[in-house]
Amino acid sequence: MKIIECEKMDILNSHVTFIRVEPEDLSKAIEDILHVLSDLSWIADFDQEYIRMSFEKRAKDTATYLAGSLKMEKKDKVTSNTGEYIVSEMAKEAIASRLKYKDIPLAELFKEQVIGNPGFDYYSLNGNNIIIFGEAKYLADQNAYGNGMKQVARFIKEKQDISDLNDIDKFFEPSSLSNASKGEKAYSIAFSSKKTPSKNIISGILQNKYYNELVTHKEIIYVAVNV
């Protein structure tokens, strides 16, 4: 995976960032994701044994399911079955490596259901102690930022982010959770971007009807993944 762009995309709002990711060799990218799935070392960070046991059970079940799905993919093609997972993982990695934000396992690995959990897809924490709620979208035939923006706007109205706090509380300090409960939140929209030029994608995002609604929050990160 290669981060080919990382820039502020709105001169009037410096807290909005655009990142573009190129998987380069897709088969290698899938192998890397399989490695991430098998690495459950993050569970050891929790002190209480019951927490470690619970997360280990959930993570292993989900990792087994996702690994099986990824191994069935064609080496040069992503399908709708695993597209959003690939977009989520690459976006999460890009945010952690380029912006130096907190790296947290994907939601599917620690939420209750093996697959298809409600709520956001990934999370992070910025340097101002603000939790980032991330949503990923994959479409086979077009850029998916519109779907992602619409979904995040809907989640905010439905207070899905607040609902998610109960699932993610063990990954964050009480102060960051308190900030989120008071409305101090950030969001990330990750999406499949095909080969569309970045300037066209950014223009489309800026003109999207949900843009002004989302930009009012503490930080917004758009991550375009070339799949």
* Through-space gap between termini: 11 Å
Total of domains = 1
What characteristic shape results from the CA principal axes? globular
Q: Give the topology string: H per helix, E per strand.
A: EEHHHHEEHHHEHHE
The overall pLDDT, averaged over residues, is 87
What is the number of E strands? 6
Q: How large a portion of the residues is in β-strands, by DSSP E? A: 15-25%
Outline the biggest β-sheet: 6 strands, mixed
CATH level-3 fold name? Restriction Endonuclease
- The CATH architecture designation is 3-Layer(aba) Sandwich
Amount of helix: 40-55%
What Rg do the Cα atoms give? 17 Å
Protein name: Anti-bacteriophage protein A/HamA C-terminal domain-containing protein
Provide a brief overview of the structure.
The chain is of the alpha/beta class.
Describe the structure in your own words:
The termini are close together. Strands 1-2-6-5-4-3 form a 6-stranded mixed sheet, sandwiched between helices. The chain is built from 9 helices and 6 strands; from the N terminus they run E-E-H-H-H-H-E-E-H-H-H-E-H-H-E. 36% of the residues are buried. The protein is α/β, with parallel strands linked by helices. This is Anti-bacteriophage protein A/HamA C-terminal domain-containing protein.
Blueprint of the fold:
Layout: E1 2-8, E2 16-22, H1 26-38, H2 49-71, H3 83-99, H4 107-110, E3 122-125, E4 131-137, H5 145-157, H6 160-168, H7 174-181, E5 186-192, H8 198-207, H9 211-214, E6 219-225
Parallel strand pairs: 2-6, 4-5, 5-6
Antiparallel strand pairs: 1-2, 3-4
